[in-house]
Amino acid sequence: MGLMRKLTLGGIVAVACCLISGTVRGTPVDPDERYHLVEAEPRAALEDYRLNEDVWPSHYDVEIKPYLEAEAGKAAFTFDGKTTITVSTALSAVTAIKLHMARLNIASWRVTRKSDNSLVQTATEMYDGETEILTLPLLSPLLVNEDYLLYFEYTGTMDDDMHGFYRTYYLVNGNPVWMGSTQFEQTHARRAFPCFDEPRYKAKFQLKISHKTPQYSVYSNTPVATTVVDGTDRTLSTFAVTPPMSTYLLAFMVAPYEVTEREEMGILARPQARDQTAYSLDVGLKLLRALGSWIDYPFTSVAEMTRMYMAAVPDFSAGAMENWGLLTYRETNILYRADDATSLQQQRIAAVISHEIAHQWFGDLVTCEWWDVTWLNEGFARYFQYYGTETVETTWELSHQFVVEQLQGVMQMDSLTSTHPMTHPVYTPAQASGIFDNISYNKGAVILRMMEHFLTPTRFQTALRQYIKNQAYKTARPEHLFAVLNQFEATAEDRMKPWTVQSGYPLLTVTSSANGFTVTQKRFLVNEPSHTDATLWPVPITYATKESDFSNTMPTFYGAATFNLAVPDAANVPYLVLNNQQVGYYRVNYDAALWAKISSALQSTNFGGIHVLNRAQIVDDLFNLARGGIVPYGTALDILEYLKHETEYAPWLAAVNGLTTLARRIHEEDEQLFAIHILDILEKVYDVVKFQSPTSNERRVLTYLRQNVLQWACNYGHEACSEAAVTEFRRFFANPQTKVHPDMRQVVYCEGIRKGTKEHFEFLWNQYLTTNVATEQILVLQGLGCASTSETINILMDAITSDHVRKQDKSNAYTYIINNPYTLPHVSAYLRQNHAIWATSHGDYMNVASAFNNLLARLKNDAEKQTISTFIEANKNVLGTAAYDSIKGGLDDYDSNKRFTVDNRNAIRDFLKKKADGGAATILTNVTLMVGLLMLVLFRL
Question: Which of 244, 596, 686, 695 could form a disulfide with 202 if both were Cys (CB 3.0 to 4.6 A apart)?
């Protein structure tokens, strides 16, 4: 029996109650969602958040004495600090020194002239809590080019918010073992010591840590140089001096960790996880050497960097951090055990390690001068996250994954009016944090890939080697990069710079003409197709009319609003596809005749020879052109029927992203038609991947494809998929020692919980509480998110507000729940009833606003929307102005989404109904009956 005939009552329940999204990776696929909190308005003049250039540091001596438990006169989770900063000035008449400080209590400070240790007379210090700038007034000006010493004694607090020098813990026999770690990027070094906390102020650091022994070991960017006894139960460890670097790259840990070392690399982990470090050590060493060779600047070329440590931190706000010589990671991004992690999790570990190791050159050795050009750090690191990993894991087809995950992923955000250029002014700490987004990361990497194909890989590599050597130990601006690129191609800056300083990207519209094709470029704004923005880009053009053409990715640039492509015998080409292998950063629309030719080719043998990446491009473009009102939905969905024959990962990943967005906008009354459509297009690919564990010799991307296909098939009621998943879950439930294959767990856990009992839920929750493997915890949370009763949903929401779910995982755990449409009214009720608890657990009421907004982005029920609106009006004072305004914005987005649904409903429904009537009229009747029965069941819950 075909997939179209496997829609059961249980399947319809799945459609109503299940997780709609597949294994979507990278960026959020729905750019309408408010994933980021609304930023507070600056309360000072923007320029006041930046330090002046009067005084420059050259060396820091920092001594930290942490208290991880209460001691005589010292509270737990506090620290004492002493810091001496060597500074000088090249200016005359400097009578004040400005630097950063946050959340520190300074007991005393002084300024001395280094040459003779004479005291500089000072006035009372001034501190601005908004800008976090400490001003030290001097009664006489500093001498030019003379070294001075700023000395501070102070105390601080090790908070639990994963910033600054913070506290974290892991459990041993149910008891917390406390430790200290750091996260200083972007502006949090100032919470550990007074400093010039901007990346342009590079200096050397010598760190000392007084730590309890033998309970704790200490680690930092460089090895320990000396140790001395410090009292009765402490050791003062002094680390070797670092190379010149920015404050945000200093790192240290105080933890009862163990090290697994080989040659110039070591992995730091809690003792219970040491058996999960082998893969990271192996791939890390390979990447450290491969990237050093590629850049022609081995890591150990920096004299102070005699070894690289990578540390697994139990609570970590970012995915990982590139501290020079001491990389820090979430456990899920570095600890790997083959029997408890998916293939995709293994790939992420390798890719994140490659990203952070790449930063040792692009970020640490050469650092962006200020966060307005963060892409000089993160764009390169994201590029090597894929292309670096591909040098050591050669069979994972990472260059193909890059196109869908990075290029197509960032196009979502960059098609909104709220986007920004890669190079973009920032001033405040909040703005500096906000610039670390998909534009700096994804778009930065995408533009670098575009330049690589323009320059050729050899010239691109040679240019980057020169750039690193030119700027080593310095900071960089884009002009430094452009100047080097221009040495190898005179037009490089002209071709690249506009993409970095202009927001968005173009849509190219192609129409047939007498001697070829006419191409028009216009900025693509998905919600404003009729805009008047006249921005133009130098567009890299390649095209194919036959299979052999797709290998040519060397572009010709066109900068005009309209230009012509002269193609011999243009009227008779089988098809025209622009942007070979989607190297260029733009979308393409075609006239009706050209779309018809592309559709015909896709439906022919071997897809007419259209390259797999261009098939993924066509899928992504069609979904977004339809969403933007440029191509009718009926036309787009009709062309996308080719997916019934598609069995490659990249086009299907693009399809999953597009279908996820579309599924959230399908009218409630049309969901059964949509389910029939989904099962129909999945039929062939399901038969290819099958419900089975991966074989030892299958392509890695086939494993990823299976995860997507099975999840969508089970979610939309594929009977065999559901039965197999439930059977596997219940086998695991009966005998927990016989684990589910990691690559099957996401679908098995989800279906087992959705179709299971409270006892099954509690069983899986116990797996979460007792596992020693962070990657398995994530898989369990994903499965628990498929809960299908109000009781289990509330249990899970309670868990998120408790310490059972770590702070770093709370946001993801919540997303797993609301990706299940059944949960939305229950989650809404929970948030309304427990908003104060949620605010306390997550930090403030802005996090309550974020929770409501992400829920509203998925909601289709007007009554529930009105309930939320009534709630915020009644609780305006409790929420506060910022959170209230944020949720009001989310309610406006709901209305926009509803208008979109209404405006496009007829076109989508007509396509779906015509398809169903053409081959599934009887099934449609049965489906309608079962939906009616389901509604009655749900009404009684």
Answer: 244
